[in-house]
Amino acid sequence: MSDFVYLDWNATAQIEPDVTRYFADALQRLDANPHSQHRRGREASVAVEKCREQLAEILAVRTKQVRFTSGATESNAWVMSHFKDREGAIVGSTIEHPAVGAWLDETLPVDEHGVVSLEALEIRLQQGGVSLVSVMAANNETGVIQPVDSIYALCQQYEVPYHCDAAQVFNRVDWAGRADFITLSGHKMGAPIGVGALVLNTELQPLLKGGSQERGGRAGTVNAPIIDTWNYVLSQIKPMSGERQQRFEKQLMEKTSAQIIGQSANRLPNTTLALFDVPGDLIVMALDMKGIAVSTGSACSSASSKDSFVLEAMGMNGKPVRFSWGHRTQLEQSIPIILETIQELEKTCAW
Ligand code: PLP
Fold first, then answer.
1. Among all residues, which ones are annotated catalytic?
2. What's 31's DSSP letter?
């Protein structure tokens, strides 16, 4: 085992060595502006279009629906800023990532398992005055998968557009959700940080104005090397089995005070969020000293001393620990150290 085990995949997936090599090569190979007309420019443009085609195939949409961005935050902001300028409320769940949550006018509750209430959504849609519904595909803290197809069906029934932040599902589960707007993030599935996409059903006013890139939707030089590397990663993505998660959680529950959050919900097979008799930040620090990287819920809020808003929305409180891993992560080998560390802390610092 290397002396470092990375269990923080939902913050950003670890870049595998073959991806690093591919990216280094792409930086040299695709060093021209894909909008330039000369041969080098055309080569960069071909690489960009190949990735667009692969994304369109994965999502079963037309290539012109796929627009590249710098990541999920930008894709979300693009949709949200468009609808913010329109009449009506932007309605989303209480557990949306802050990149969506910051834009919401109204929120819909989730149940104790962390699943958005379809009943509340329907009641709100019946009342009218909703410009956009935004509910994520899977929550980044709990890993709980949301009923995207039912949400889309309801939105279609009430003729309200639906946006789905699907940053966390790819390379974890086979996801075939449908929505009018879908947000993707490259680095959550193993590409370098700094690339994402928005899949759209209708044109939106641009967030970044100026040049005509991305069909006039997003000005700025298109980043061919990173998009080409994302394309390489996309050709390898696959669903994970839930066996490792089950074995890990069984041991956590047998040997520590762990309360697994959202345990009986349909969850991502790479994510375990747990509350212990010890505050999560102590466990994060203790594991870090032993070479195991985990986090207290979302990376965005880990600097804050507040409890997780996702847990609060589920009717709980406390500082949990999120373990999240990738296909090649040495999870099994780190389990004894994780158990031992938490047991030690539970003996000395229980609150
Ligand atoms: N949406 C979700 C569900 C996320 O988990 C994250 C990152 O944690 C983001 C959006 C922001 O993604 P990005 O870093 O690609 O901007």
1. 300
2. -
